[in-house]
Specification:
CATH class of the largest domain: Alpha Beta
Number of strands: 7
Strand order of the largest sheet: 3-4-2-5
Largest sheet: 4 strands, antiparallel
Number of helices: 4
Radius of gyration: 18 Å
Structural class: alpha+beta
Low-confidence stretches: none
Number of domains: 2
């Protein structure tokens, strides 16, 4: 049970496309950039940000600076869905001007689907697209004809 302040509602959406923004994807990539390489990195990142922002389905693109570590930067992009993100990564200009820079990111999961969102009036919970057995099933095999998504 979710407790919210009086007057606020909590809505669970069973179909991701039924909620505004429920199919959005947020991608975060962290970079360790030393002082000597910072100027070059930032120039490359400026180009990468513009290139990503111009892709169809890109809703936002920004670079953040850690307030705790001078060498830690964060690239954050938001997409209309996983399909928009994958199509953007397939675009020639992204392959040439962005992917080489992304290869410098800290090796960790970077794509997150929206499963909780405040829509201005209520808290909306959406189902994840990730199957509950995703960590145990490999390419070419199926655990079952249909597998429930992970609990979100």
């Amino acid at each position: 049970m979710t407790l919210l302040p009086d007057g606020l509602t909590f809505v669970v959406v069973t179909q991701p496309s039924a909620a505004a923004g429920a199919d959005r994807l947020v991608v975060v990539s962290r970079f360790h950039v030393t002082a000597p390489e910072r100027t070059t990195f930032l120039a490359q990142m400026d180009t990468a940000l513009v290139t990503l922002a111009q892709q169809s389905g890109c809703l936002a693109a920004s670079l953040g600076q850690s307030t705790d570590e001078a060498e830690l930067l964060l690239l954050r992009t938001e997409w209309a869905g996983v399909g928009a993100y994958r199509r953007a990564l397939s675009a020639y200009e992204v392959k040439v001007g962005v992917v080489p820079l992304l290869s410098r990111a800290v090796d960790e999961p970077s794509a997150y689907e929206t499963v909780r969102e405040w829509d201005g009036e209520r808290l909306v919970a959406s189902m994840s697209g990730l199957a509950a057995d995703a960590g145990g099933v490999r390419l070419g095999s199926a655990a079952a004809p249909s597998v429930a998504p992970v609990e979100s």
